[in-house]
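Researcher: Hi, I'm a grad student and pretty new to this. My advisor asked me to get structures for two proteins we've been looking at. I'm not sure of the right format, so I'll just paste the first sequence and hope you can take it from there.
Model: That works fine. Here's the first sequence with its structure tokens right after it:
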Amino acid sequence: MSDSKSPKILITGATGNIGKELIKYLSAKKIPFKAMVRSLDNTAEIKAVPFAEVVKGDFDDKVSLVNALSGIEHAFLLTSSSAKAGEQQMRFVDEAVKSGVRHIVKLSQWAADENSTVRFLRYHAIVENHIRESGIHFTFLRPNLFMQGLLGFRDSIRFHGQFFGAIGDAKISLVDTRDIAAAAGESLIDPKHENKTYDLTGPEALSHHELAEKLSGAIGNEIQFVDIPSDALREMLLQVGFPQWQADGLVEDYAHYKRGEAAVVTSGVLDATGFAPRSFDNFAQDHAQLFFPPVLKSRSPQ
């Protein structure tokens, strides 16, 4: 039998961008939790977080999942986006049900649909349906494109003053990952969010050209968005090391955006957290120093 004082919340994807923000969010609220990691090496940073406990678990190892899920009542479900993500997540759900977990908060994606042309949206919808059919309580978080996705273009922006995409002038209601983490945190600790789905967006829809303009203003240096064909985007992703499956999926994602299917602004962040979502201007100001060109970063105050 588990210790009644042991954490009742399990965070998967704990070392990723959203997982790290979720850990900070729960810790700030003094909520005990377990953070699931594949390896116990290099976990000192997580262990140092107040109210955190690290547990080893692997989505491909049922025995380790059973151990990680022991005594857990609420679980945050997030895996890496790979060809086996759907299979991994459904395995986790099955083991969670067997282990007596009462509630799963799943990070899904904007417009998840089993009939979508986008592979990411298909697998998320399949997992959502698997969770519903399992009978477990759920909260589905469906965020739009992450503002922090721009950090993947950090070097291109710093050294060349540009970033790329196959999207034309289409607008997207991007969302800050800190708001996604807050929505996840609230969903894990407040039962009023059970059996609900939240579409998470920022407060406005912006084109990539507008993102470049706002980022330029924040860092004081001109940044340009360069629209490229889908094939060029795929080749670029492969060259920087993305697996073929994921590169093709991202190209499908951008085709979905280009069709104007991700421009709607929703109240999801407000509904889930009680506060308005951060704007892209907020994001740009908070992260400006990461995009400074080397010559600007090295300047000394006068």
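Researcher: Oh nice, that was easy. Here's the second one.
Model: And its structure:
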Amino acid sequence: MTEHTEIDTAHGAMMANEEDDLARLRFYERLADTELFMLLKGEAEGDQISPAMFEVEDQQFVLIFDREARMVEFYGKIAPYAALSGRAMSQMLEGQRIGMALNMGVAPSAMLIPAEAVDWLAQTLGAEAQQVEGQITELTAPTGLPETLLEALDRKLATAAGLAVEAYLCGVTYEGGGRGHMLAFVGTIEGAEGALTAAVNEALVFSGVEAGMLDVAHLEGGDPVSERVAKVGLRFDLPKPQMPQQPGSNPGMDPAKPPKLH
């Protein structure tokens, strides 16, 4: 029996009710976070790749699969491929007028994702958080946040293994009376601040909360502010880091050297 994947589940929920915006957002969230396998015409030349593409109604599509076995089933044998996250793939394809053909003929999640949707995903994931300054006067327990946002944060932070020790969601009051909510990361490793802030921004987008705002702070731990957020905040446990794998020859495995189309 063929494995039923998270993308299959998210795709099924989206197709069950095409008017459900939240289900559609969750499908694209899963697509962004999943490692995908892109079929290539031939072996990569350094960081240059030539995707296998086909044309439907004057639009080109790359062939992608959420399992290597599905790609082999489609192609009939082991083939050259590039493995990278849906996030990286959408950003690589942005502006190229190229769509994604997902799991064609080998899974219930088979679908054509048009170039416009690929561009939207890349732009959504590339949106930068705004930096603000404010003096905190009070930290409290979080209240009134929708369950969909809490679930989105939980899913997103589950992918942030090793970037921080823990995170706390709390209510915050600023000098001047401004109120809101803040997600405070404790023990963020050097250089990971941007990635964690971007992850929170994505959680807001994919939660479906309109005009949602959430401040982000990075704390060293052991200071009065860290102790206060630990007392009043809702804790999120971040996974422990796994031993890093050595990047292989397959383009896309090393995030520091993303592949390029040619």
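Researcher: Is there anything I should tell my advisor about the second?
Model: You could mention this: The helical segments are 6-16, 21-33, 68-75, 86-93, 115-125, 147-157, 193-207, 224-232.
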